[in-house]
Amino acid sequence: MKKSRIFISVVAMLLCVSVIFVSCADKPADNTPGGAGGSDISPENSVSATEEQTSSKPKYTADDKLIALTFDDGPSAKATNRILDLLEKHNGTATFFIVGYNIDDNTSVIERTHKMGCEIANHSNDHKNLTKCTASEIRNQVDAPNEKIKALTGVSPKLFRTPGGNFSGVEEEIGMPIIQWSIDTNDWRYKDASNKGRSEAQRNADLKKISDKVINSAESGDIVLMHDIYSFTADLCELIIPGLVEKGFKLVTVSEMYEAYGVEMKNGKVYYSVDVIPASVEPIEIGNYKVKTNGGVLNVRAETDSNSESLAKIPNGTPITVLRSVAGWAYVEYNSIRGWVNAKFLERI
Q1: Helix, strand, coil percent values for the chain (each to nearest 5)
Q2: pLDDT tens column, 3-58
Q3: What does the longest C-alpha to C-alpha distance in the chain come to?
């Protein structure tokens, strides 16, 4: 009887040990904070952390082939939304220079633009020629849209584009980086109007002519000028956007492009493009050239550095003589001023 009790006790102990062993074997490793080999991220938070990481905006570097599409005078519900659809489809962003009097009727478009990661910039309140305004009028033209846009998006615009590109003498009064352009599509000249009298074939030919010009002449660092108030421009973007992407360009905002290429924009300064010079570029020959900038002006700089001081601006089409050259840069004289220009904007004559 005594042996039987001992036997039962032994069996019971073995069963207990077995249960404990199985329980420990089935228990997962302790990954909670404070556990052995633990992490600061609990299992509940690890999924959201992954989602946050994968949904963050892409970062661009100086090695990327970047171009900035910009749109003036909007927004307009129809044309702007079509352009946004195209940007979304091709994983691109752009900068929209908004006029103050268009804000109240297009709040949903502005909110969508902001949520997509596009840049909302200022194009004045009433589209006036600021060079003919008083200092107080300029202040209102700049401040009013900034305040409205910030109220809508929570972010105040960082960049300004003057109506008609007129800024001479009022740069300091504007008090923001002033963005011009290096490629002008002249889309406004081709907008649909009752007095155009062109056939559909002529309209398509115009679209192809402009889009081919942009796609074939585009360089890293360019700023392209368009207007998101015309259906013609939305149709133009159906050709330009996929065409640039196919050539390897990443469509980014103006601020993203300047940041990636290491150029700090300053208030009261004017910017046309980023002078991006590939490492493979060779010096050009000494001799006579013509400035070819797709409509913009060419900066004469103090040094072979796109961030260096601009000494003068040479209009497009101006004949110029190259005195000497290094990789990517040409030393020229213009109006008794000598300095360096980006050689990619010179054409031999």
Answers
A1: 40, 20, 40
A2: 445 444 544 554 444 444 444 444 333 333 333 222 222 233 333 333 334 445 55
A3: 122
H-state helical runs in the chain: 2-26, 43-54, 77-89, 107-115, 135-153, 171-174, 200-217, 231-246, 254-260
Of 73, 187, 227, 235, which is the active-site residue? 227
Least confident interval from 31-40, 155-164, 233-242, 285-294: 31-40
Cα–Cα distance for residue pair 316/313, rounded to 1 Å: 9
Break the chain into its structural domains and give their ranges: 66-188+198-260, 278-348
- Helix axis angle, 135-153 to 107-115, nearest 10°: 70
DSSP secondary structure string for all residues of 164-207: GG--TT-HHHH-SPEE--SEE--GGGG---TTT---HHHHHHHH
CATH of the structural domain 278-348, one choice from 2.10.110.10, 1.10.3860.10, 2.30.30.40, 3.40.50.2300? 2.30.30.40
Pick the catalytic residue from 72, 73, 206, 275. Answer: 72
pTM over 0.85: no
CATH topology of domain 66-188+198-260: TIM Barrel (3.20.20)
Question: Is residue 72 annotated as a catalytic residue, yes or no?
Answer: yes
